[in-house]
Write a structure and sequence with these properties.
By secondary structure, the chain is of the alpha+beta class. It is built from two helices and five strands; from the N terminus they run E-E-H-E-E-E-H. The protein folds into two domains: 1-37, no CATH class; 39-79, no CATH class.
Length: 90
């Protein structure tokens, strides 16, 4: 089991749910804490569960920053460069 603690956020990882639940129960008796269930976001990193495991992303955080500085609605310009073009050192 891995217990990750950063300031007031705790993330508990493990393969045995019984051990995780015992750990949560033990910590709850000592500290005032809330069990928020399966991980969603920690330290601006979002965890998405899929069939292969987890995907981590910060796309939502990037959108938040872009909106804060009024860059979210900026239009992108595309070049005429073909992505399949092979480049040489010259």
């Amino acid at each position: 089991m891995i217990l990750y603690l950063y300031v007031y956020d705790i993330m508990i990882l493990g393969i045995d749910i019984q051990v995780i639940n015992i750990t949560i129960s033990f910590l709850s008796k000592i500290f005032d804490m809330k069990n928020l269930g399966p991980i969603n976001v920690i330290l601006a990193i979002k965890f998405l569960k899929n069939s292969n495991g987890f995907v981590i992303t910060q796309a939502h955080y990037i959108e938040k920053i872009l909106k804060r500085f009024n860059y979210f609605e900026v239009f992108f310009l595309f070049s005429h460069f073909k992505p399949s073009a092979k480049l040489s050192k010259e």
